[in-house]
Amino acid sequence: MIFLVLLLIIVSGCTKVFDTEPPEAIAKINNKEIALKRGGYHWTTEEGALTKATIADAASPNQIAQDLIASPVEKGSEATIEFSDHSKPQLTYNFWEGDQSGKSISMEGNKITFPSNSGKYVIEVNATWSNGDASYTFVIDVK
């Protein structure tokens, strides 16, 4: 009996605990890092024979943007999106105008090219992994 208890402790100590939510994201722009605000997501984790699904609802990107400070960027500059777990999910992005989302654009090499017109822009990045998806928001001020 003691052997079984010890074996159970050893095995459970070696079990990998998976993240229960998507990783954090940043945008790198000309050696400057901007933290992206995670919005809604759907995330699935498996721990042994158990599968846990988490669905988190959030405000729309234009509402999330109200609490964010716009980062100044140069016209036509680029941002590279990176994740805290170094994963490489499939990415798309879109610009929000008021309460409407613009056309979804696939990202090549995790890069977003900013507009050449001056102004503030709300950008939503959508990431998709094999075990879920998440939305991220940040705001830029093109000068």
Highlighted features:
143 residues, mainly beta, 8-stranded mixed sheet, 4-stranded antiparallel sheet, 12% helix, disordered N terminus
Short précis:
By secondary structure, this protein is mainly beta.
Notes on the protein architecture:
With 143 residues, the protein is mainly beta. 12% of the residues lie in helices and 51% in strands. Strands 3, 4, 5, 7, 8, 9, 11 and 12 form an eight-stranded mixed β-sheet that branches. A four-stranded antiparallel β-sheet has the order 2-1-6-10, with no helix packed on it. Mean pLDDT is 88; it is low at 3-17.
H and E string: HEEEEHEEEEEEEE
The gyration radius over C-alpha positions equals 19 Å
Mean pLDDT rating: 88
- Report the biggest beta sheet as strand number plus sense, adding barrel if it closes: 8 strands, mixed
Structural class: mainly beta
Helicity, in percent?
10-25%
Q: Which stretches are poorly predicted, pLDDT < 50 over at least 5 residues?
A: 3-17
**Total E-strand runs:** 12
Distance between the first and last residues' Cα: 71 Å
Share in β-strands: over 45%
Shape: globular
> How many individual helices?
2
